[in-house]
Amino acid sequence: MKTQHVQVCLIGDLNDANVQRTYVEAFPNPAERFPLGDYAAYVASGDSHVYATKIGDRTVSTIISEDLGEVGELLSYVWTDAPFRNQGLGGELIDGFRQAVYARKPAAIIFLEVEDPNEEGIDDEEWKIRDRRMRYYIRRHGAQRWEGKYIMPNLQDRRKRGVPAWLMAITEDGSEVTHEQFVDAAVYILTNSYEVSENHRYVRQLQSQR
Predict the structure, then answer these.
(1) Span 185-199, pLDDT tens digits
(2) Residue pair 55/3 in contact by the 8 Å Cβ criterion
(3) Is the distance from CB of 167 to CB of 182 less than 8 angstroms?
(4) Which CATH number fits domain 1-65+74-105: 3.40.630.30, 3.30.530.20, 3.40.50.720, 3.40.50.360?
(5) pTM listed for this prediction
């Protein structure tokens, strides 16, 4: 049963102790985590946004997004505090996030990265998690999946192998996102969000798919 007094709101403070704690718990692998301190600077400049579901004064679900300019918006991270999972709070937060993005940029495409469930070497449990996540975004939020090849750089060490991922997109009216729009977004995300050079092998791989 859901806890009462649930609020979905836009916040700008990443110093919330519960946000910091649950971020690390949700993404225990340092290679997956972008430093929250860096995001705080991006929030201050308007390049990133932080959305939260709060119960009373406690933040229980959080979204961090990045403004991709004319390309759209990147849903970088979404997570829920463990005791409050499986109550629909994350889905409600994504709904509120989408409304806020479309109010700010009516024609925006929301992009998100989901680790590829077909990556070689992962165990059955990890496959189930990734596959369930991908299907959730398609079923619950109408996400479209790009069939192109996309790799997320390793955030801990850019020299190490990145993680194969599905790039997905959500539009307000369900309109189709073209192959070219996916490629443009993927290149923008790698060169701006991940700050890799245009000559990086992952960027060149994307450019070859045009």
Answers:
(1) 999 999 999 999 999
(2) yes
(3) yes
(4) 3.40.630.30
(5) 0.91
